[in-house]
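Lecture notes, continued. The same structure-token format from the folding unit now serves as the input rather than the output. Read the line below as a description of shape only.
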């Protein structure tokens, strides 16, 4: 599984943002490294090396998102690393960002019919042409909707 920022990628008949998820690594007491995912309480992994620990966090994220789907819980939208760095639980840790593809957890895409002002539609289309993160109008709108829903949740 790959982990990405809120960039759009092609997925069968659907585009949506992959997530860039902040993680913090801690050197273990003995050997190895532990990895915590601050935006997903209870999601953690470990490995003998930094690379192994970051690779293993992919499996932990997959299991966590499977649980969110099974429990019908909204997906969290990751905060910036800066929002977590002030937390004393993570002091002394090494920060990284992993990319995680949530497409398979969002369900089947559905076609909808919407009405937008012509000027707004032109601006969206121009942005899609300029910005390599978006390969379609639908992908842009899905990304914007997910960001807005996440912002509204944090109010």
């Amino acid at each position: 599984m790959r982990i990405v920022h809120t960039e759009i990628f092609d997925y069968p008949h659907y585009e949506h943002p992959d997530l860039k998820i902040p993680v913090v690594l801690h050197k273990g007491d003995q050997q190895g490294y532990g990895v915590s995912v601050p935006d997903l309480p209870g999601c953690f992994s470990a490995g003998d090396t930094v690379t192994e620990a970051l690779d293993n966090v992919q499996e932990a994220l997959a299991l966590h998102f499977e649980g969110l789907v099974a429990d019908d819980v909204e997906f969290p939208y990751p905060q910036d690393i800066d929002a977590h760095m002030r937390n004393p639980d993570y002091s002394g840790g090494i920060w990284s960002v992993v990319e995680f593809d949530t497409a398979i957890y969002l369900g089947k895409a559905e076609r909808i019919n919407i009405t937008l002002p012509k000027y707004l539609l032109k601006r969206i289309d121009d942005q899609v042409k300029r910005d390599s993160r978006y390969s379609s109008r639908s992908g842009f709108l899905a990304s914007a909707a997910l960001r807005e829903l996440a912002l509204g949740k944090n109010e």
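Point for the exam: Residues 1-16 have pLDDT under 50 and may be disordered.
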